[in-house]
Description:
Radius of gyration: 18 Å
Oligomer: single chain
Strand content: 15-25%
Distance between the termini: 14 Å
Structural class: alpha+beta
Helix content: 25-40%
Number of strands: 7
Amino acid sequence: MRWIGETGDPHHPGRKHISQLLDRFYHDGPKRRHLCFVLELLGPQVSAVAEQCRNYRLDGNLTRRVSQQLLYATNHVHSCRIAHGDIHMDIVVFRIPELAFQHAIEDVSTSLIGKLLRIDGAPLEKDLPEYLVKPAEWAIEILEFVNEVQLIDIGGCMYP
């Protein structure tokens, strides 16, 4: 992500469709040290929205916009001499505009948290978390707000 920010053309039309690294920091957890990335709040995956639609398909106009923006994003990544190699609907997410931001925060704040337990009752291995957080689910009504997508998961890209 940093490579794209440093080498990419800031005026390329696909830049805004690539997840940008806002900040990063280390967090010393109870088990080990973690590198944390700060990204903008993004909405649901395209695949999750499609699953909520009739016949598991996005509206034709929305599909064209998503496809065009994904092509811009891919072109921008390629202009930085990077090959993605694994683009699919799970790593294309909708950007949530300011208008829907408060609704998104309410959804995230109601996420379920569950304690992680082994079936056999044995203690957890030291590298496992003590609990899991279920991702927020987005209501189909969010579709009225979505208009732009971002390509995420740049970590698996092939660099020069």
